[in-house]
TrEMBL record:
Organism of this sequence: Micromonospora lutea
Identification of the protein by name: NodB homology domain-containing protein
Gene3D superfamilies assigned to the protein according to its UniProt record, in alphabetical order: Glycoside hydrolase/deacetylase
A Pfam family hit: Polysacc_deac_1
SUPFAM superfamilies: Glycoside hydrolase/deacetylase
Annotated ranges, domain NodB homology: 78-261
Length: 262
């Protein structure tokens, strides 16, 4: 029993190592031979009966050691872009939109499908006011890029369908992987669906709830021509982001200009 478990563990480990070689652009894991994850074979005590069969867990492909090729990380101009993730949120998105409108600047909203389903009127306002849309997955699945390709595709398609249920002719030129946990596979699927994969240049980590001053300082310190700034208008209390934005928008507009992504 212990031997068998050890062997299975080794096999799992080997598969993991082979699949995880650097910038893996090889065949997708979905078409690789199915093998249980290494954890399924550990430890022997976890299987009380030798005849018990354990259903294999869905296999996640490993994250590559570095970001895959093909990510958009700059605006394509001297101007900087503000991107707002995880909304639309009825609490925060209207306030962000008000600030953008007052400053007469356009931003990019990376929206989550389930939020769009709950708040289609907010999506309509985002589009009506001239901002750009980015697909941010159906339910913010951090592991989406590691799943079988058909699952990735279904998730992205479902999200775009929900966006277009709210705004029938909406353009969705970008996809952004939740958590920035990209794989070559998700980039490829997004491309097949006519979406470029949008990463960022500056992450002030507003999701970790620093103060508004800290968010502001982090963005200002790293601001360069063409930078893409990652911010959040959903997924939690965004009062600090909002407070930082009121100053950041003015400064970035003055120093670089703020625009959508070309
Ligand atoms: Zn997100």
């Amino acid at each position: 029993m212990r031997h068998r478990a050890l062997l299975a563990g080794l096999t799992g480990l080997l598969t993991l190592l082979v699949a995880g070689c650097g910038d893996d652009t090889g065949p997708p894991a979905a078409s690789a031979p199915a093998s249980p994850p290494p954890s399924a074979a550990l430890p022997p005590e976890a299987s009380p009966s030798p005849t018990r069969t354990v259903a294999p867990k869905p296999r996640l492909r490993p994250l590559p050691a570095k970001l895959p090729a093909g990510l958009v990380r700059t605006t394509g101009s001297e101007k900087v872009a503000l991107t707002f993730d995880d909304g639309p949120s009825p609490t925060w998105t209207p306030k962000v939109l008000d600030q953008l409108k007052a400053a007469k600047v356009k931003a990019t909203f990376c929206v989550v499908g389930t939020q769009v389903r709950k708040h289609p009127e907010l999506l309509r306002r985002i589009v009506r006011e001239g901002h750009q849309l980015c697909n941010h997955s159906w339910n913010h699945d951090l592991d989406l890029a590691r799943r079988p390709i058909p699952e990735i595709r279904a998730d992205l398609v479902r999200t775009n369908r929900e966006i277009r249920r709210a705004v029938p002719d909406a353009k969705v030129p970008f996809y952004r992987q939740p958590g920035g946990r990209w794989t070559a596979e998700v980039v490829k699927v997004a491309k097949q669906l006519d979406m470029r994969s949008l990463h960022w240049t500056i992450d002030p980590k507003d999701w970790a709830k620093p103060s508004a001053t800290t968010i502001e300082k982090r963005v200002k310190r790293s601001a360069r021509p063409g930078a893409v700034v990652l911010l959040h208008d959903g997924g939690g209390n965004r009062s600090a982001t909002l407070a930082a934005c009121s100053k950041l928008i003015t400064v970035l507009k003055r120093d670089h200009g703020v625009s959508k992504i070309a």
